[in-house]
Amino acid sequence: MNETREKLVEVKNLKKYFPIKTSMFKKGNQVVKAVDDVTFHIYKGETFGLVGESGCGKSTLGRTLNRLYNPTSGEILFDGKDITKLNNKELQPFRNRMQMIFQDPYSSLNPHLTVEKIIDEPLEIHTRLSKNERKEKIIDILEKVGLKKEDLDKLPHEFSGGQRQRIGIARALSINPDFILCDEAISALDVSIQAQVINMLEDLQSELNLTYLFVAHDLSMVRHISDRIGVMYLGKIVEISKSEELYDKPLHPYTQALLSAIPIPDPIKAQNSKREIITGELPSPIEMEKGCRFRSRCPFAKPICAEADPQLKQVDDEHYVACHLY
Ligand code: SF4
């Protein structure tokens, strides 16, 4: 483990369970274990990619560490401060430092507000800048995200999907955050636009010293932007590694299967590659049995896999895996 780099976010044994309602008003005893005992950290200035199939808990994990959801248990440290149990007022200074970019920019932007008003809202609430100073800042941010001063008076529907995502990014940047949760932030965009937005996010990161948590199901895009990647399966992180190493030497059987499902553009390479198709039943996230939760789909499962839940174990510098094979 690299001890010299400073951590911006540290998550320890984090759980987020959602009670299941048995009627409109009554909560039953059963829970969905969306995030189940997750421990990891994000270094200052890095991009940490979080991947997994839909429903694996990656968005819930992101939103819980941003304190949009209250955790069930565990700890969240932000820049060394424990923010797990802070109330809304105490959280405010941290909320300013932790912003979010959503998947669907259209539904996250108020369609009746102009671009200027959309970006001005957080500035008016969270800063003491005068109206003129705010306007100058808004123009500056718009230029940073590739939009123009002439766009100030336009409404969201006058822009393309990629441009609307740029407005969402400008709004997130307006109050100078350190940390941005990009929750499937490019999934709804065309591939060519995805690459442009990724390049812009990378430029902004070096210019403004930002730290990103990049949540996505598209492994090929996560590889391009991430320094390290965590792979999630049914509420657990099952592997963490530097990005290149994860793609060159995936250890967890689930990671191997996810990677082999990525389409290969070269037809000759694609023909020679061995695809691992995930078969077997997905266990219920409500009645989780003991042992490894991937075992019903794992071709390498052995008796111990039904007995003990494998914990994340360090196997190399910055490479961790939760599997009884290691
Ligand atoms: Fe497969 Fe066992 Fe490893 Fe789980 S712990 S991934 S079942 S080998």
From TrEMBL:
| Any GO MF annotation of the entry | ATP hydrolysis activity
- GO BP annotations listed: peptide transport; transmembrane transport
Alphabetized CDD domains for the sequence: ABC_NikE_OppD_transporters
Q: Which SMART domains match?
A: AAA
The keyword Nucleotide-binding is annotated on this UniProt entry: yes
Q: Which InterPro entries does the UniProt record give?
A: AAA+_ATPase, ABC_transp_ATP-bind, ABC_transporter-like_ATP-bd, ABC_transporter-like_CS, Oligopep_ABC_C, P-loop_NTPase
Report the residue ranges that make up the ABC transporter domain in this protein: 9-259
Among SUPFAM superfamilies, the record links this protein to: P-loop containing nucleoside triphosphate hydrolases
Query: Which keywords accompany this UniProt record?
Result: ATP-binding, Nucleotide-binding, Transport
Q: Which Pfam families match?
A: ABC_tran (PF00005), oligo_HPY (PF08352)
Similarity comment text for this entry: Belongs to the ABC transporter superfamily.
NCBIfam families recorded for this chain? oligo_HPY, PRK11308.1
Protein name in the entry: Oligopeptide/dipeptide ABC transporter ATP-binding protein
